[in-house]
Specification:
The complex is a heterodimer of chains A (230) and B (219).
Chain A lengths: L1 H29 L43 H9 L24 H19 L8 H5 L10 H5 L2 H10 L13 H17 L9 H25 L1
Helix pairs in contact in A: 3-7, 6-7
Chain B lengths: L8 H26 L3 H4 L13 H7 L4 H4 L14 H8 L10 H9 L19 H6 L4 H5 L16 H8 L23 H11 L5 H4 L2 H4 L2
Helix pairs in contact in B: 5-6
Classes of the chains: A mainly alpha (230), B mainly alpha (219).
Chain lengths: 230, 219
């Protein structure tokens, strides 16, 4: 009898001890004695000269153009050297010169470029690249329009340099855009530049119709907005 | 010797059996539901931060994409907190002299990071990766709610296992296209039943048995 009682006592002590230990474990396992990402105290100064993984060629020089991506029409090609800037259209998507993009442009590349542009550049440069982004409207020094003469003529390497090293009020975006993405964004900037100066008559029939419909829709919208304001 | 228990004690005995069951059941119900309350989960409780940072202003008013600041959300487990440099991209010029941004400027001068307070904290024994969710069509607002309407940040979900599983059992209910991934006011379209299944196929989403297997999240 006494023996039984002793066994019961030991068993109940074990159960009670186990319960206490388990409840302790619970919190320990929720919060391990380790740093969470970005937890205060986990940050270290990066030692000088550290090269991040995959960052070894962050700064490839702009490769030479092997082949012009878009061939300008003969008429424009002939007129361009004589009176630069006098022919409004067509503008070739990629300047035919010593400077170009390190890849052939595809729809995927432009989509990625647009996606990254809308994340990193649009707040200041605006959806059209005219420098009327929300942050610019809030009072940051207004960025130049991509449709300015100077930037339309600028080689792609110029844009790459500005993204990588910053320019004027714009700080560098080397952390935010990988080298590959920088080139893709530049390709999209060329699209924006073309979009504001392209000759609508050169579009395919279906596309032109869509453009006209969009224009009508915008006009209608603006008129409606004007009326509602009055 | 008279009887100790009168005849009516039988009724009391039967009743007490039921009563014990009710109390035990009630206690269980209380424990389960108490653990789901916002008192325990801290959902909808706004967290104070060292800087008066408003997501409502930056996302809602300015329309800045989530990924401008949370840059690694598509690539790594952690969505990433912006470095002070990211703040200074704009705030070297905007609100450059206001006192409440002094902490940001001090951090910029000294190189010492701002100590942001974590809002969403999963238990350390659960494995979570932002990139797989974002790349497979689970948008920001599905878990984080309408961040564009939050002046201070709070959880909108319990972050409990039953909540994780509710989605892992039927991911097609919340899947969206990549172009809408950071869209804050996204709501499931009327044809989500069909669309979600298509997207699940397109994103190559694993079967429910894989998604709900223990080792998917507890590694």
């Amino acid at each position: 009898m006494l023996k039984h009682r002793g066994r019961a006592l030991i068993l109940s002590l074990l159960v009670a001890g186990g319960a206490v230990a388990a409840s302790g474990c619970r919190q320990d396992m929720h919060d391990n004695p380790r740093y969470e990402p970005y937890e205060a105290g986990s940050h270290r100064e990066i030692p000088e000269g550290t090269v991040a993984r995959g960052a070894i060629d962050t700064n490839p020089s702009a490769p030479k153009v092997v082949q012009a991506a878009a061939s300008p029409t003969p008429a424009a090609g002939a007129a361009a050297p004589a009176v630069p800037g006098a022919t409004p259209a067509p503008v070739s998507a990629v300047p035919v010169g010593e400077d170009g993009l390190p890849f052939r442009i595809t729809k995927q590349i432009l989509d990625r470029g647009q996606n990254r542009y809308n994340i990193s550049c649009l707040p200041c440069h605006g959806a059209l690249g005219d420098g009327n982004g929300m942050i610019a409207l809030r009072g940051i020094r207004r960025p130049p329009s991509y449709h300015d003469e100077r930037l339309r003529k600028a080689p792609t390497s110029y844009f790459y340099d500005v993204i990588t090293n910053g320019f004027g009020a714009m700080s560098n975006y080397a952390d935010q855009l990988t080298p590959e993405d920088r080139w893709k964004v530049i390709a999209y900037i060329r699209v924006l530049q073309l979009s504001q100066r392209a000759d609508g008559n050169q579009l395919k029939e279906g596309d032109r119709q869509k453009l006209e419909e969009a224009e009508h829709a915008t006009e209608g919208h603006q008129t409606a907005g004007g009326h509602s304001n009055q | 010797m008279p009887q100790i228990f009168p005849r009516s004690a039988n009724t009391l005995a039967r009743f007490s059996i039921v009563l014990v069951g009710l109390i035990a059941g009630g206690a269980l119900w209380f424990i389960l539901n108490f653990n789901r309350t916002t008192y325990v989960t801290q959902a909808f409780v706004a967290r104070q931060q060292p800087v008066q940072f408003s997501h409502k202003h930056h996302v809602g008013d300015d329309g800045i994409d989530c990924r401008y600041c949370h840059q690694t959300v598509e690539k790594t487990a952690s969505a990433g907190l912006p470095s002070t440099k990211t703040c200074m991209n704009c705030h070297s010029q905007l609100f450059a002299n206001v006192p409440y941004l002094e902490i940001v400027r001090e951090s910029w001068r000294s190189g010492k990071p701002i100590e942001w307070q974590r809002v969403h904290d999963l238990p350390d024994f659960s494995y979570f990766n932002h990139s797989i969710h974002v790349n497979k069509g689970v948008g920001c607002s599905t878990c984080h709610g309408r961040v564009d309407l939050m002046p201070l940040m709070w959880n909108t979900q319990s972050l409990q296992m039953e909540w994780c599983l509710s989605c892992h059992r039927a991911p097609e209910k919340v899947l969206r296209e990549q172009k809408d991934i950071t869209k804050m006011d996204w709501v499931a379209p009327p044809d989500q039943d069909v669309k979600g299944k298509e997207l699940a196929k397109q994103y190559n989403i694993q079967s429910t048995s894989v998604l709900t297997s223990c080792s998917t999240c507890h590694r």
